[in-house]
Amino acid sequence: MTMKAKYQSVLDLGESLNIQNGSVTEENGVLKVKGTANTPYEKNILWDKIKEIGGESPSDILANITVADESVYHRHTVKSGETLGKIAKHYYGNAAKYQDIFKANSDILKNPDLIHPDQELIIPNL
Fold first, then answer.
1. What's the pLDDT tens digit per position in 14-31?
2. What are the residues facing 76 on neighbouring strands?
3. Which H or E element spans position 123?
4. Strand locations in 16-100 (E)
5. If one looks up domain 74-123 in CATH, what number appears?
6. Rounded to an integer, what distance in angstroms lies between the CA atom of residue 17 and that of residue 45?
7. What's the pTM?
8. CATH no. of 3-67
9. How far apart, in whole angstroms, are the C-alpha atoms of residue 108 and residue 68?
10. Hey, what long-range contacts does 89-96 have (CB within 8 A, 24 or more apart)?
């Protein structure tokens, strides 16, 4: 199995995240991946996928993933049925962090219980 085949799900994820300036090469059994993620969240999920396949410190892949926008953790488009608590649980693992998302979006949100589909929310760096 080539390293590219081994890490194909990482490459597919990068494509679905629209990673910019991407390049992939394989040299001496090591996959070299480079690109720019939109946000720190996207960079983190790429690294999580790499570790899922290669372990905590994989030696068969070198990834140089930079981030285009460090000012926010992510930008989230609200889907039907979501709450700030569910969104906070997804990004931070803690529903109580909804208050941080509410504060970061106080220009468009007046009540943490009232969010609407298609609103774009800033998920702040904590």
1. 999 999 999 999 999 999
2. 121
3. strand 120-123
4. 20-27, 30-37, 61-67, 74-77
5. 3.10.350.10
6. 10
7. 0.88
8. 3.30.460.10
9. 24
10. 91/41, 91/123, 92/126
